[in-house]
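chain below, 164 aa
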Amino acid sequence: MSAEQNKVVARRVVEELFNQDGNLGAADGLFTSEYVCYVAGSEDLHGAQAVKHFASTERQAIPDLKNTIEDQVAEGDKVVTRYRTQGTHTGETEVFGHPTGNRIDITGMVIDRVDGSKIAELDRLRRSGDYAAARIHSGIRRAGGRELGASASNIQSLSKRAGA
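prediction:
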């Protein structure tokens, strides 16, 4: 497949699986049987069923979930997609924990490896400054149960440490 065709496959993952108006059933045709997703700070996802479960959980926890593609670059069998996730955190997720009722706005990148016409591998990267700021704004607690403050100095400090 051409680099442009690979971009279309990667774009479908975002549009079909990670938006409220998408089609979870599309996962079966988008991923190889050996598919693996490497997510920094979380367990790897293996196979289309795991992706469907993850996407379904995100949709339930963020009922107005909207992912948009901000930029895409492809070469050979690799596609890099920069995306933006927005919505209201009203349910439990592995990533965000207990519901807060607050808005999230996160940017991130994924690197897909396409095999034939399906995604075989995905590395998910989040810009830690944006992710940390979103967690602060959402009122998400650290592992020790301590609430993260939403002060401007905390956000600036996290952004500086993350290189944002």
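The first strand starts at residue 31 and ends at 39. Strands lie at 31-39, 45-46, 66-75, 78-88, 103-115, 118-126.
thats it, cya
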